[in-house]
């Protein structure tokens, strides 16, 4: 099940804190977290960074995945985000945080399938797309997994 929740001021420290909030969302019982930021507004990445830190502080080393999604890829050329800033974010997420990272555009349905493939691969509920399938998709061919 995928649950889309509004921005949280603070990640619940424990089950009691989540329940006491009045709106228990099940945030502490998931297999993966998908943190989405607006590529046209890099300040939103700082929110993802803060949420990631709170999640890690709350759980320690429990077995779960975090995936970071850069959405609104279509707006990158219209705003002041430089390609170097976006490369730095990608490197931070992939190399230092060791998290999945996908840049997409929901508006144009660009790489939305990759978001779900990344999610399924990280949670162990689906196969990660093979190099063969990746190369076929890039050539405009269809591969059924």
UniProtKB/TrEMBL annotation:
Gene Ontology MF terms: GTP binding; GTPase activity
UniProt-listed InterPro entries: P-loop_NTPase, Ras-like_GTPase_Reg, Small_GTPase
Pfam families: Ras
Protein name: Ras-like protein family member 10B
Organism for this UniProt entry: Ceratitis capitata (Mediterranean fruit fly)
UniProt gene name: RSLAB
